[in-house]
Amino acid sequence: MNGSSHQTEFKIPIEWDGKSCGDFLKHSGVSRRLTAKLKRVPNGITINGEQARTADIIRCGDVAAIKDIDESLLEPNISLNVPIVYEDEGVVVFDKPAGMPVHPSHKHREDTLGNFFAARFKGLTFRPINRLDKDTSGLCAAAKSAYAANALAGSISKIYAAVTEGVPVPRDCGNPLVKWYETGSGYRIEAPIGRAEASVIKREIRGDGQRAVTNYTIEKENGKAALLRISLETGRTHQIRVHFSSLGYPLAGDDFYGGGLDFCGRQALHCCEMSFLSPFGGEVFLTSPIPDDMAAV
């Protein structure tokens, strides 16, 4: 799946060959409400650049695309409670718990950060600036207006804490696509990331992937696990998880990428620091403590 300022694209994998476009979009997390909106918009849904219907049959290698439109009508859920660590006229920053998706999908319609935002800020469009996976915890910013979203886009700096199985010190990993070496201030991974074959979600190191760079330091280690402080130069899907898994040091609890569940019940990844220049509040620096489940490891 690839995104742009105008549309989001999905390359059709082999297992969806011969099936309907509508079923594929539903499987990919496109809500029924958004699909209904897209059907009313010219070129809202396309296949290989041509307007398509949800009943149309897709083929392996096709590129399905949906136009990026304002899906502001999220269902408010007043029963949710997410800590707010910063707020001004243009932006709010949440401390998102693990297990909560940022956006609603066909599996999570009312239990997301978007649903909480809709309840807390009635009438405002949910515009998250940084996106965290469902089981990644920590700081997540959302703009309150299109102006704030544009002002903040690409300007937020983030630091992640992660716990790996084993201690990731550079060595020859046997993959010529990977550059992994020590720097003056820590370690650096350079390895291109792309969508894995026959999967809509999973990513892997591959020659035709997009450039991806991860920098990190080892804060603590006990021989069996390590606590890392991570900064990203690129923002590829699942970048931290894919890079460390591909090197043989998956995140604790990340069973999707080879990690075990012995020490942590979810991927041990947390956005612990965030800084940005708010168009309303000036320079902002925020922190979030490492959650108990990661600290226990």
Structure, explained:
There is one protein chain. The protein is an alpha+beta fold. 14% of the residues lie in helices and 31% in strands. It contains 6 helices and 18 strands. Strands 6, 7, 8, 9, 10, 11, 12, 15, 16, 17 and 18 form an 11-stranded mixed sheet that branches. It has a 5-stranded antiparallel sheet with strand order 1-2-5-3-4. It has a two-stranded antiparallel sheet with strand order 13-14. A hairpin with a 7-residue loop joins strand 13 and strand 14. The protein is globular, with a radius of gyration of 20 Å. The mean pLDDT is 90.
In short:
By secondary structure, the protein is an alpha+beta fold.
Structural class: alpha+beta
Individual helix count: 6
Low-confidence stretches: none
Distance between the termini: 33 Å
Instruction: Compute the number of strand runs.
Output: 18
Helix content: 10-25%
Order of helices and strands: EEHHEEEEEHEEHEEEEEEEHEEH
Mean pLDDT: 90
Strand content: 25-35%
Helix and strand layout, with pairings?
Blueprint: E1 2-3, E2 7-11, H1 21-27, H2 32-39, E3 45-47, E4 50-51, E5 63-67, E6 84-87, E7 91-96, H3 113-120, E8 127-128, E9 137-143, H4 146-152, E10 157-165, E11 179-182, E12 187-190, E13 193-195, E14 203-205, E15 213-221, E16 225-232, H5 239-246, E17 269-278, E18 282-287, H6 292-296
Parallel strand pairs: 9-17
Antiparallel strand pairs: 1-2, 2-5, 3-4, 3-5, 6-7, 7-9, 8-9, 10-16, 10-17, 11-12, 12-15, 13-14, 15-16, 17-18
